[in-house]
Amino acid sequence: MSDMxxxxxxxxxxxxxxxxxxxTSVALTRHHLDRIAALDPVLHSFVLVTEARAMADAAxxxxxxxxxxxxxxxxxxxxxxxDIYDTAGIRTTCHSKLLAENVPQQDSVVARKLAEGGGVxxxxxxxxxxxxxxxxxxxxxxxxxxxxxxxxxTGGSSSGSGAAVAAGLVRMAMGSDTGGSIRGPAAYCGLVGxxxxxxxxxxxxxxxxxxxxxxxxxxxxxxxxxxxxxQLIAGYDPNDPASVDxxxxxxxxxxxxxxxGLRIGLPRNLYRNAAELTxxxxxxxxxxxxxxxxQGAIVEEVTLPDYDLFSACGRVLxxxxxxxxxxxxxxxxxxxYGALFLxxxxxxATLSAADYIQAQRLRRELSEAVNRVALQRHDLLLTAMAxxxxxxxxxxxxxxxxxxxxxxxxxNVTGNPALSMPVGFSEDGLPLSAQLVARPFEEAxxxxxxxxxEKITEGWGVARTPPMALExx
Amino acid sequence: xxxxQEERDAELDLLLRRAGxxxxxxxxxxxxxxxxxxxxxxxxxxxxxxxxxxxxxxxVLDTVTRERTx
Lengths: 473, 70
What we know:
heterodimer, A: alpha/beta, 11 strands, globular, B: 0% strand
């Protein structure tokens, strides 16, 4: 690793160098800020760069280490936040005209934990408006672009998080995931994206999209980076009504244990007949299943309820809950929303109480099918994430939902932890992905399997750095 | 367009008006597109369910009181 550029250093390795005195947080932070200045004018991943705070935090981190104060694995490590995470004294817009001047007085719990852990905040990242919408050109900031090809979307809604980590502007960025907003950008940008179990990570101070579907989690350049981050931000929060009071296990201890002996269910029925499934994605999933079996996993076909049921259920819950949150502003200032967000959330006015309740009833059945049937017999599920590579911007109409080729929402509906992993490339050189799913609160096992996938795909030559990011090194 | 579709489309106007939401004319086509798509998905919610399929989890005492139950 001695010849690695600073932005490519894993968090653990950067930490070792910081503690050994061969690297300073100031130098690491300056390197990332310089990359942001060089690359972000075309990527648009940041809506705000907090340079002065970052340099001050980095200097403090260095001074603390010199004095023997070590705040843990994120000490001195740069990171960034999706712009729906409240940050005290720092503008938090949700990428919307409605909150263009919003400056919170308190940090979100995740922002506070990252700061207390010694992390260095580089800035706030682009999102789809209020974490829904889509890639829009009628908002206060332009949409983030995919570093693998600027003509392609990053996926959303954690669009800036995906672009920034993929381009090496930051090693880890926080996203949020209501229907796939961490895993989608991770899939399209060739990253690791972890949606933890519902209730593991506090959502306090993160602008809600849908109370019962929202999750906070990281987009990272590696499984270990995702594990380090999640370890820091997880834990009970009495101020988050969804938070669950239980100990958080060591998420890194078992990463290298491999998959031998694990039972992995392969629910091909979810994606096999989807029109959007590309041959390359299908081949990558089968190849991965074979590789996991070759490493000793017991990979077996399993059948889940039809994807359309998960999708209808999650969509109704999301729209109804988002509408409840935005109802007053939709009435009083509809023109301040972008066209895409308005087109999706105004539909909440057309849903009945019975629609919402039927969706919750269906949710119970779907959760039972995943947790009391499929994951009773299997330790993990391996399934599709994105069914193909990132679409192009010109495939999205300006006023309605565009292409939808990701299959993430089932595990927002059920609350299971789910991990998007890069597994290869399309013919056009865009990242492809797979998804691993575990039982609730079994993130350690999920990340362990993710690490095994990471090693397998390293053997396939799956690159992690887009050409434009390499050129800027 | 079928008469049934026209009637469903007309319901969108009614429901938005009742909710007090005014959609600008240039954005109406996008909302209507989403409405039709959503309406097509709603029957999936209404297949036969068992008595066990009720959203009781919303009201588990643990969640309300923030205390552990035995």
